[in-house]
Amino acid sequence: MLLVYVDEIVITSSDQEGITTIKELLHKTFHMKDLGHLTYFLGLEVQFPEKKKRHLCRLA
Length: 60
Fold this sequence. Notes:
two-stranded antiparallel sheet, 1 helix, 5 strands, Reverse transcriptase Ty1/copia-type domain-containing protein, RVT_2
């Protein structure tokens, strides 16, 4: 899933390789930086249980 809000992009998937591929494609076209794992978005704290593997990436 790819979520775009103004100048923020959030990518989430259970497939880490898929996230890496999308990030590489976006970096080739747009100037952006990887802000790492998502912890806050739009003033909300994001947490995930340890048992469920979720890969999140925040780009700006």
